[in-house]
Request: fold
Amino acid sequence: MSLLDVQRSLVGFARGSSTEFQGCDNLTRAEYEWLKQLQDSPGLQVTQQIQQWWRIARVCASAPLTIELLKRAGLEELIVEYITTEPVRSLFFVAELEQFKCFLQRQIAVDVTTHRVIEFEVALKNAYQTSVSSTSASAATEAPQQFHFTQNPIQLFTALLTGTPLPTAVEHHCVIVSPDLPQHWCLAPKVDNLIAKMPNNAEQISPALTS
Amino acid sequence: MLQQKTLRRLGVGINYHWDFHDLIRNNIDSIDYIEVSPDILCEEKICTDADGTKRYFSMDERKLQDALAFGKLCPVIVHGLGLSIGSASGWNNDYLTMLDQYAAQQQFLWHSEHLGFTLVKNQDGSEDHAGLLLPLPFTTEALALLCPRIQHLCNRYSVPFLIENTTYYLSEFSTTGADGRRWDEVEFLNQILTHTECGLLLDLYNFYCNAINFGFDPYAALVRLQLDRVIEIHVAGGVTHEGFLLDVHSSEVPEAVWELLEWILPHCPNLCAITYEVLEQALQLMGEAQIVAQLKRCKSLWNYYLHCTCTYHLPCTGPEAEEMSDARLPSQDYRETNHVAA
Reply:
């Protein structure tokens, strides 16, 4: 029984929390003393940093558009808040991204565009995963999803990926994400003439989003 | 009836990643096997409800097919990442389900897992992930938890199972043994080897990191280890951060680890493989030529090893193994019979 309490404490420590340690009733005196001295140890600091590096790497790799939007909005501290307050659930990209989306949805400082972009990135990852999965997908993951943008999505994504200014014009567009689409996403058929004439398209941008 | 399963001496290999596709293809003549972590071929979905947390691995068919294609070109061994073998609240069953699926499509000569834990159940039934592999205390409680699990893994796939020593950055917590001395990493590994039929995947770089970070002599420690149980050796490189040598597989093998490898090889009579572990991100940092140079250096040491050892046998796994006498299993009196000088 005390091993479970030791492990609960260590997992809490790894993300900078001592709440779990304080809630453990089954520790022996020696275990308690050992855990207590670990709290201020340089080894624990390094352990925490390694965990955070991997986590930041997962979030940045799987949500590049959202991360760039947060940076431009001066909300980088939300990334730090996420990795320091949200428990780790998985080492996998899709699970991490889903958790990050839920975290951002609770943040009032995050604007509508960022919400839409993280939803889009999660849907895109899920669509890719469904398309290559060996197990049968649920109806929910197979169904096409639509995302409403108030900016030109092509211009928005391009600006985020190339470091150029974000589009300022208000335009209403719908993006469809589906595992059945060639790049797993496209603009909805009802596009205005401006978009139809643009050289950029989903095929050109997708590698940067799905790599 | 007693049986013996002879493991093939494979030689030198590299961990598989699809980013290494060209590297492996271009050097298939000098790569004797690939080490596959089936976890990297998957994504994981998590559902938490009133019954607790459920994990589902979903295999990526494209990545799987790439790995299977290499499995037709060279032998495959498995190195797991996600079992969390030491979790007091139960290991990750979904990892085993996933490994079952992989095993149905790919033969492998042995499988291995890290000694540590990543998962823990909370009091409310939810499950947290440590975010990295955390060490187990070297205690009788941890040993009692591990041994039946390891023995199960020895029998599950009819191929040997190896446990791997890991790098840790937290000071040890340990049991005092019958001789009055506190268990250290080596004693804990020896206890596992004594009480189960598993082999040892000796990660020399991990061991070296621990020696540097906690200030002990790796040579003096390794002579106490049951080296006749070493089936595979890992070598790798990493970086130093805030005074700690980190296990990140991001660079060339340090010279001190090459020296350790050369020294230990003649004392590992059952060694079958030396794996150079490297992160896919290191391909850009190091370049293909530098990675291949590391493999070639492993190969020259492997040839040296072949020159100084002879044939060997390992106990089989499965029900027959239970009939084996202790005399047939690698003995605990290694220190008396195979003493090696530091």
